[in-house]
Amino acid sequence: MLIHPNKSCLLIIDIQDKLVPAIHKKEELVENTIWLTAIANKLNVPILTSEQYPKGLGHTIPELAELIPAEGVMEKEFFSCMSEPACNEKINSIRPNQVIIAGMEAHVCVLQTALQLKQQAREVYVVADCVSSRSPEDKELALDRMRHAGIHVVSREMVAFEWMQKSGTDEFRDISKNFLR
Prior knowledge:
6-stranded parallel sheet
């Protein structure tokens, strides 16, 4: 199944001020997620982000937050976005058949959200180079578990090219020039 821009949304999970410093390869996670979020914006793919207990863990990091519409920010206390009633409602309000997931931690909030989205009969795509955990072992175990559950593990470039669908368009030329070097 190909990822389609009109049937998908980008869900960014918990890339927050007080959590990022502890994450393995945090710079790569942040840079790759910003890259994917900017492309989603250019292609008008809806973007949502969750914040796990922001009173204690802070908000989405500023360099990412500036790319996300204010109405796309969701607070949660449950680890899974789909267990948090307000998040579940917001995600379901845009009715995406396909949910592209970036964020952290891969073995906790990303995993639980992905599994519950899959239980809702969604096509779920976890972007391997846009997720991380405190330990690389936990990330790898989470990706393996998700694969076995029928969740697609993809790269950010796979998502971008599937969203673009073809070359020769203004969007392709813009993204190719500014993002694909």
